[in-house]
Amino acid sequence: MIASIIGYASQGYFVKHSGYAGVAFGTAVINITSGLSITLIDLNISLGNGTIDQSSDFAILESTGADAVNGTWAPVNDPFVLENGGNVYANITITAAVDASTWFGGTPTYAAMYFNYTEYEENSCLLHPAVGHGTWAALPSLDENQTCQKLNFSESSDAMRIDIRLHVPADAPPGKKENSITFTAMQSE
Amino acid sequence: MGRYMDMRRIITGVLFLLLLLPGAFALGISPPRTEPTYHPGTTITLTYSVRGAPNSDIEVIMEGELVKYLTLLSPGNFTLDEKGWGTISANFTIPVLTAPGMHEALIGAQDAIPASTSTVIARVAILSQIWVRIPYPEKYFDFWVEAPNRINSGDVITLAVKMTNRGLLAEHVSGVIEIFDPLGNSVAVLPMTSADNIAFGESARLAADWPTTKSIAGNYRAAITVNYDEKSSSLTHEFTVGEMRIEILNINASQILKDSTAKIPITISSKWNGEIENVYATIDISKNGQQVTQLKTPSKNVGAWAQDNLETYWETKGLELGSYDASVTLHYADKTTAATKILKIVEAITEETGLQLVLSADMLVTIALLVVVFALAYAFMQKRKKQKGYYSGYYR
Predict the structure, then answer these.
(1) DSSP letter, residue A153
(2) Which of A149, B192, B199, B384 could link B175 by a cystine bridge, Cβ 3.0 to 4.6 Å?
(3) Where are the beta strands (DSSP E) in chain A?
(4) In 3-state terms, what secondary structure has residue A51?
(5) Which residues of B touch A88 (CB under 8 A)?
(6) Cross-strand bridge partners of residue B388
(7) How far apart are CA B251 and CA B268, in angstroms?
């Protein structure tokens, strides 16, 4: 279980006195307010340094621990981990600010990025979309790409893992590559 | 991309760091959903509590079909207080809507992207839904199946459907479930509970229990038919019936170095929907029918549906070369699972056959050097080959 750092609760307390001397009845009333909360637990993915093979059009890097294809990057097993810290089911989407060709530069047809989500804790996702669960789905810019449609909130089953795969064109210019990836949550059902 | 470009291509060094911000990001909002009653022209004031990391900068986001009917009253950018709390408030004017179904506006918060040297920023956003529902001019329900995906053989599975009316009054709702076993055979037909007089916005829950006693383990399918007056809808739910069984997936050893202490890992897989305590294996090793030794792994608890490893060590000092029979017996609860494997004691490992390989440091260095030499030679040959191809093509 990953400890939640978000919670919502409000409470009231009422005490009712009976007419019998020496006897008191107490009634505690706790009103739990519903709250939606997500926590990006592991928000660092570092794919490190590498070079693209001379004879290849693009290299493939991913956060799953798989070897880089057509490149010298060391395998990295370092996904995003997202936890539902609220008390309602959450519908999670993922969005990139810019598409892969804008992000990397180089030959646009060789640039791509994908996402793939799995359950970080057993039974954490109770409703899956058609693609993206255990399979690579394209991550275009600006579209809200559906991941888990019903992320559980029970303590031992509330975290999902999101991996990223990048296709980097061999002629992409070196230098800083800026993008932002947003995980958005809404109440499910 | 042609060969000419390949030749000119400079090896490109690329650094990808996805987010360099410390710690974890969290954002929460309450309430997560508001469903005002449809009264066109009415303006309601909505107030949201936002919580995140103390003193973090927040951007308010508003979107959705009905976003133009939202008016933000609080600042569009703000900073959470030292305890991590903040407030968003907005007015929402319910518009005139004609299309039946759900209409939505969204309001929420996201981390403001900080100025940093990060190459990629990962962040979270949370959206609270404002739902306005217009009834369908017919009998119309939304359905959700509520049932576990895994259950143990012998347990009772409760299969339920939650249904909410989005249209005209339904006087009577009922259902039936047909269950199909892993072979596709129909094994049960179960009537569900029923409900009466479900009005717009109201919900009912229909359910049926199925005892899995005498059911074989495997994947089952429940075909659910829900009837609401003269209409019906079909739903399906798949679930797995597990059994108290642990499979031995692999004995990760085959060649064992002579006069060594060899690790023998055993990969196991539980088919039970719960933890099994005190799981261990014994390995009887024999040669020509004569027992040589018996090994035993430490005990461990194996989680529900988990794949796990047990391991022990075999001291082969003084044992002769050749094949040995290893009989592995897995012990758990009052059950056992058995598997066999032939282990060979050898002078040297000839090929990698499992995790038990024990290679000396000298062997590893030699192998590494050979790999590097071959890789360099191959790269050199490839480069020469391309150069030759390019220039011959150019002069042709």
Answers:
(1) -
(2) B192
(3) 10-17, 24-31, 36-42, 45-51, 58-62, 80-84, 90-96, 112-119, 137-138, 145-146, 159-169, 179-187
(4) strand
(5) 32-33
(6) none
(7) 9
Nearest one of B135, B193, B189, B122 to B164, comparing CA atoms = B135
CATH code of B287's domain: 2.60.40.10
Q: Give contacts of B 351-370 with A, CB under 8 A.
A: none
Query: Residue B304: exposed, middle, or buried by beta-carbon count in 10 A (0-12, 13-18, 19+)?
Result: middle
ipTM of the complex: 0.79
Q: Does B121 touch chain A (CB under 8 A)?
A: yes
Q: Which domain holds residue A94?
A: 36-187
Cβ-based contacts of A189 with chain B (< 8 Å): 144
User: Are B43 and B79 members of one domain?
Assistant: yes
Secondary structure letter of residue A74 according to DSSP? P
In this predicted model, what pLDDT tens digit does every residue of B372-383 receive, in sequence order? 777 777 776 666
- Which one of B10, B30, B118 makes the best mutation probe of the A interface by having the most chain A beta carbons within 10 Å? B30
Q: In the listed set B242, B274, B309, which residue is the last one of a domain according to the structure?
A: B242
Give dist(CA B300, CA B309) in Å, integer.
9
Per-residue pLDDT tens digits for B324-343: 999 999 999 889 999 999 99
Provide the percentage of residues in chain A whose pLDDT is more than 70: 80
Q: Does B359 reside within a domain?
A: no
